[in-house]
Design brief:
This protein is an alpha/beta fold. It has 11 helices and 9 strands. It has a single domain, classed as TIM Barrel (Alpha-Beta Barrel). Helix 7 runs parallel beside helix 8 (218-225). It is globular, with a radius of gyration of 18 Å. The relative contact order is 0.17.
Length: 317
């Protein structure tokens, strides 16, 4: 068990309503997607990626983002994130109740051209424009570096290649930088190597990671993130997770689900790691939401907590 006095704080970011849905065969209605967000909030989630402002003809599961948000009641204690790829997406998000714009920027040309139709250099221009829109709208801005741990088309991605993109992004005036293991090939040593790129960099006040469990290393990577030197980031690290372990990228072959919110929270709770952005004592609600979502998607829950149960009343020894 981790000593709570020395443990970092993990800020949970629930990405189920976005990444959890975008690779599923069944497209949910606006009402069902709104209900998913509401269920997660009722279950204690306080920061979540609710929608994606992308083209509905390319990712139909993410169509009608404005309508999903319009069905929600704004809450001061809940931060809603909208994913964007460029200025146009940012302008759409800026007109909604989103509190934060998360700009996705791949670090390889191979993935960037297939995913967004641009090179990395062009993507950097789009990211700069989107950050500008967010700032003008008074909203937070974060950038997620996709395929930072490995690319399905290029293969290995050297840390030096990621570093060149980080250096450019850090000058955009962002609130948070995320490293994404888009296809689930990462290992803990990479978590440390990528974090080292921004350690002590005042231009990157917030650090975040996005892990998939494709090769069963997602939770090991999440644990590695809690062992980093986070003194330059306020002693905090943000971790993405998806209720039920749903998720994947439609432009990344064989990509499977994110690490599951309920499984991650069980790990952190039992280890004595402080968590914000979610209620670690309400895991039953998340398990119920995952089961409900499984029925709506006609897709099995990937998380394990619902099958094995949680020792909610037990000692975290």
């Amino acid at each position: 068990m981790t000593d709570p006095s020395s443990a970092p704080v993990v800020d949970l970011v629930e990405v189920g309503p976005r990444d959890g849905l975008q690779n599923e065969a069944r497209t949910l209605s606006v009402e069902t997607r709104t209900a998913l967000v509401e269920r997660l909030v009722e279950g204690g989630v306080r920061r979540l990626e609710a929608v994606s402002f992308v083209r509905g003809d390319r990712v139909p599961q993410m169509a009608d983002a404005e309508a999903v948000l319009a069905g929600l009641t704004p809450r001061d204690d809940v931060a809603l994130i909208g994913l964007v790829l460029n200025r146009r997406g940012a302008e759409r998000a800026a007109e909604t109740i989103c509190d934060e714009l998360n700009i996705v920027l791949p670090v390889t040309d191979d993935f960037a051209t297939r995913n967004q139709g641009v090179t990395v250099e062009q993507g950097l221009e789009h990211a700069a424009a989107a950050v500008e829109v967010a700032r003008q709208a008074g909203k937070r801005a974060s950038v997620t570096l996709a395929v930072a741990f490995g690319c399905p088309f290029q293969g290995q991605v050297p840390v030096a290649q990621v570093a060149r993109v980080v250096e450019r992004v850090a000058d955009l005036g962002i609130d948070e930088l995320a490293f994404a293991d888009t296809i689930g090939v990462g290992v803990p040593s990479q978590v440390h190597a990528l974090a080292e790129l921004v350690r002590g960099d005042a231009r990157v006040p917030g650090l975040r990671f996005h892990f998939h469990n494709t090769r069963n290393t997602g939770y090991a990577n999440a644990w590695a993130a809690t062992t980093l030197d986070l003194s330059g980031h306020g002693g905090r690290v943000s971790l993405d997770a998806s209720v039920g372990g749903f998720g994947g990228c439609p432009f990344a072959p064989a990509a499977t689900g994110n690490i599951a919110t309920e499984d991650l929270l069980h790990l952190l709770r039992r280890s004595g790691v402080p968590v914000e952005g979610a209620d670690v004592d309400a895991l039953g609600s998340l398990v119920d939401t995952a089961s409900w979502l499984s029925g709506e998607l006609d897709s099995p829950v990937q998380a394990l907590l619902g099958r094995a149960g949680d020792l909610l009343g037990g000692a975290a020894s």
